[in-house]
Amino acid sequence: MNKPLDILQHYWGYTKFRPLQEEIIQHVLDKKDTVALLPTGGGKSVCFQIPALVEDGICIVVSPLIALMNDQVNALTRMGIKSMALTGSISLNDLDRLLDNCIYGNYKFLYLSPERLQQELVQYRIEKMQVNLIAIDEAHCISQWGNDFRPAYKNISLLKSIKPDVPFIALTATATPEVLTDTINELELNNPGVFQKSFFRENLSYQVWKEQDKFYRLKDLLKENEPAIIYTRNRKSTEEISKHLNLKGIQSTFFHGGISADDKKTKLQNWLNETTPVMVATSAFGMGIDKPNVRSVIHIDLPESLESYFQEAGRAGRDSAYSKTILLYNEADEAQVKRQFISTLPTTEFLKHIYKRLCNHFYIAYGEGEFTTHSFNFEKFCLQYELHTMKTYNAIQTLDRLSIIKLSFEFGRKTEVQFLIPSKQVIAYLDSNLKNAIIGKTILRIYTGIFEKLTAIDLELIASKSGQSTKELIDTLKQFEKDKVISLQLATTDTSLTFIEPREDDRTINRIAKTVERLNSNKKKQVNAVMAYIENNTVCKSIQLLHYFGDYSDTPCGICSVCANQQSLPSKKELTLISREILVLLEVNTFTSREICERLTFAEAKVIFVLQQLLDANKIKLNLNNKYNLI
Questions:
Q1: Model-level pTM greater than 0.85?
Q2: Which of 1, 43, 313, 593 is deepest in the core (most CB within 10 A)?
């Protein structure tokens, strides 16, 4: 197959492209640099995957999101398309082998992080590959004015010198005009075609409500048990809100980075098939997930930026049916967001302090530590050095964002053990100490093949079976390792930290000092933009968001919270939406006007007005029980 539409139908099952997709794909196939600025759910991945499948060779995809890389690789693999992602801590030998597979193994997609491009081996092997396209996902990350600036993205332009004849496609869902211009310049795109779909969503009602009792409001908003996402800022809140909703009869589940992969899979599936139609989640949920009939996206906490809010809100109503995105806030939230994102911004001096503490914590010597990975317990780290938790968290996030370190969150990371000496010698060694014997023989009973290869072990299970504490178990394993009885890879937390460059203390942070100042200034602007958005109750909410992203339409949407308050009667558009909702409702059953008003989210006066219009048009009628039904 060499026709884009044939490939779309064969692999994705669609018979036509979404708006702008076909034009973008053709521009790429014409070997021209391309920028695709499409809103969330606009089908960006197809824009580089299809031209890559048309042409011979491999497509290199640069992405900052490990979870999204894995999701796309898994999806492509299920379709029979050979793909791989270079994620996590890979040994030099494994990296060498994987890159060889990309050269000789008929792979179509290689996903990697921008940090990987810093490795000379990766650059050298890319030079040997037959590359047909270079795709940069979340391209706004290259801009210092963007929401997610990552200095490592500046390495991407070196691919222009390695593969000068290969076209680039830069993809993003959120970019202001300033960020878009900066992105094109930083990527050194050659006279690119810019394909930008309007951010306007005619079916999406942006609503902002000041609420003292958010839980009561949630129950009112979710009474129909329709598919919904509730975004909150922390893991604990996801569980508390979900529990509250379930007690109120609203079927919900929660999702965050601290649950196991199996739990994530089960929870996601139950939400997709609407066994539990309401998902309470932290902000990462939703990337790469396409559920078209989400009727509501509710933010119960203020977002840190309009970029993140717009992306999350855009997950509602992808099927073009009327949907709501609702932001609930009160005075306490305004103070909290300023305290969390403004007052705790890390200064250069504080970053130096934290960086030195991290190096000392992991015994990194001066001039060493590059690409070493360590298990990281954040709470223990803060306690050990008596650090302010929120300020330290923001500092570590900044070091991660600026590629001084790399954080990886992997729930369920396992400690791995391999016995290095023959079994008879192991038994003799264990019998020399009672505690050694209890722990060692427990491990041997549970795990087979532990002499042949590194084997993942469950510390809690072994501690329970042997009657020892987890601390005693870990200390004993470390002694086994010291005595060269075992090879040990100890992982006691769900977070790992990798140092990207050698330790140089103040010099390391001085190199990023000006960038830190710009990031802090940009963060203040973003938080102020959120404050302005929630407080402006005179301009259509859709217009406010469109202007922020450089789309200067001045036509009110007619269905946001501002427009609804300004109109005593429904607009023409709202009339159509309410009529459709009423007719769909009456296909199922008959209802009184009060029951209809309770089931719809529009103002009661508007619903009553539309009911009268439908009566006059002979589309509905009243029966003897004073209930409406279809004619």
A1: no
A2: 313
